[in-house]
Structure formats: C-alpha cells, structure tokens
Design a protein that fits this description.
The protein is mainly α. The chain has 3 helices and 2 strands.
C-alpha cells in the first residue's frame, strides 16, 4: 500500500467557496435540528429559537424584538457556523491526510 498525501485548499477562491458552502450546510443542518428538537420537547417556535441566539448579542431585549431579533439570530448563527467551518478547514489544511 502507498500513502498519498493530500492537502485541503485553504486559500484563494476555492478555499473561500468551501468555507461558505460548509458554513451554509452546517448552519442549515444545525438550525433544522434545533427547530425540531425545540418544538418536540417544549413546543418552542423557530422564531423563539432564533431570538434566543440573538440574545447572545442583545440580551433579554431579543425576546421582545420580534422578527428583527429572529433575523439577527439567523445571521449570527450562520456567521458562527461559517467561522467554525473556516477554523476546521484551516486546521485540516495543516494536517496531511493519508489514504490507503
């Protein structure tokens, strides 16, 4: 067996595209899970879930902020998912992946 070293592109437009797509996929899956679990366990609406995310920035005012606070929560959520995708890509681009 031979081991072929492969690196993940972390710079340029290809790396940026991977980060954006990864952030979108991770954020969407995470939001879907949060919405389903919150609804099933406690009957909490998706708007309330997103307001709770926004409360990290706005505090308790997020829960009286209506749809605008929920939109801020969605934006914050996808920002965080994208940042973590970039961190993962950067970390993995420094490691060698061996096949075989």
């Amino acid at each position: 067996m031979t081991a072929a070293a492969t690196t993940i592109p972390s710079t340029g437009s290809k790396g940026s595209k991977i980060v954006l797509i990864g952030g979108l996929v991770a954020g969407t899956l995470d939001l879907s899970a949060a919405f389903i679990v919150s609804w099933v366990r406690a009957g909490v609406s998706p708007v309330r879930v997103m307001q709770s995310v926004a409360s990290g920035l706005l505090g308790a005012a997020a829960f009286t902020g209506g749809a605008s606070a929920a939109v801020l929560g969605v934006a914050a959520h996808f920002f965080i998912a994208t940042v973590w995708t970039a961190v993962f890509l950067f970390r993995e681009s420094k490691a060698e992946i061996h096949g075989g």
